[in-house]
Specification:
alpha+beta; 4 domains; 27% helix; 15 helices; Nucleotidyltransferase, domain 5; Actin, Chain A, domain 4; 6-stranded mixed β-sheet; 5-stranded mixed β-sheet
Amino acid sequence: MSDEKQESYLIGIDLGTTNCTVSYTNLSSNDHVKGSVAEIHTMQISQLIGASLQAEKLQLPSFLYLPVEEEKEAGQIAIDWDPSRAFCVGTYARDRGSEMPHRVISSAKSWLACEGVNRRDAILPLDLEDKQKKMSPVQVCSEYLRHIAEVWNQQFPDAPFVEQNILVTVPASFDPDARQLVQEAAELAKYPDILLLEEPQAAFYAWLHRHHETWREKLHVGDQVLVVDLGGGTCDFSLISVEEEEGDLQLKREAVGAHLLLGGDNMDLTLAYTVRNQLEDEGHSIDDWQMGSLIHSCREAKERFLGEDAPDSIDIHLQGRGSGLIASSIQTQIHKDDVLKVLVDGFMPLVDATDRSKSSKKSALQTVALPYAEDPRISCQLAKFLSMTGESDSDSMDQFILPNAVLFTGGTMKSSALRERVMSLLGQWAEKMEKGSVVELPDPDYDFSVSCGAVYYGLAREGKAVRIKSGTSRSYYIGVEDARPAIPGVPPSVRAVCVAPFGMEEGTECELSDQEFTLLLGEQASFRFFSRNTATLSDGSEAEAGTVVRKWKQELSELHSIDAVMDKEEGDGKTARVHLKAKVTELGVLELWCIGENGRKWKMEFELRQAEAELTEV
């Protein structure tokens, strides 16, 4: 028997709306000692880049193509490790969009956050007539994840993917349902247990990794750092304050923006409509099929115009529609200056800080589609976010926070024109508010920072990298009803049991193993939650996990309750005896586990950030 130790890896996966990337580090390496700088690699991902043509690329485009039977029979979409696969993902799938738009699935991750549909139903592609071939958003995302695992096993046969430590990133604004669907996609792809991490937080960790020697010189106590994550499908804003405690830098999230389906996809669509109008002015008629093809062609043109060394003009070719076997193609030319004006001025106009996106009434009936942001002006969405007014449409500047540093991430922000406009916008607001200057943090990584930062965070959790601590700003309690005989006119008494003490760090858990409770099964029940904004109670004692507060009306603030039905299996009684375990996740969620005598578990999730926002508005 060999005494050779199997290598262990940390793997970070950016499950992107437009592109997926994978980073990793070898935990078995001697480099991983405290104080050293870990080497983080980006994985080459083997994929189809053409019919029967396979190659490695650093990005896996988040597109899935459902081929026609002739392509499958000819082996044009066969992959080395699965010659019989019925579809393909990646570069070739993306490129087929300009020719077969109705058979290509894109933006599947965005559908995970779409509450208007059952995201487990086979609905994609929307325009495909053959319903038997359609797939659910969860299934599509699972295929991206499965492809990544398969590539890993090809490259690292001695380190099976299922035995590694996996971190997957999600938008900061994903709600619990969307995060659960990501977990389901990973389970469907036969992943081991994964850790979810916010994309902006991961990008910030990646920046720390790149600046491990100088970050203390670039960040100072009191700084407010705005992370602008503008990708293909979503726009995420996060505000991070830099604090110090006992000589250590600490990171505190001040706010996370609302979930905005607003990004590169919107720009692609805008450019496609602009080109369609141009073609129609030239006498051409564009049908829905051609429009789908045009959107894919405009995506390629946008990326070239917003990238480095952009051409002055690009020719757009569109297949014609006619009765003949070969229809004539349609061609037009678009120019860089015109495109930048449409995209930069359209999506990032220079506005006042009080010009904020407003909520508006929606039509009762709409077509089935992604819930894109109603106001495409990213600058107005940013003004709304920094105003700290939550869901209200207040014009107040009382809580407005102007950052003094900005970190850009996301593929769309590779455009210098878009970055310069954001900085001009913030500079204009700073001047009017008589604030100091706003600086852009140097040396960002727009494509790989999220997957790289996920790995760095995994190292930090193991004490092998700088850990920026972020604990709860309140203590949290669960309401427990006292069992006693009913008394006419007197409601049952309730005690509050602390499940998350003040300052409990994200990623940690605590178990109340010495306290037993009764859990109602199979019926609608209400879970009551409470909090306190100081570490100590009024008597000076510090609340710990398990601390019981009976006079909660005087000590605590009641938060919104959650109604739920706990699963009841055959043979169960009306109740089960349980003890509690609580975990504060990296996504700002309090997971409350009810653990039965036989090890059976029931889980309840409570959004801490939403609760804190509600308390702030009161």
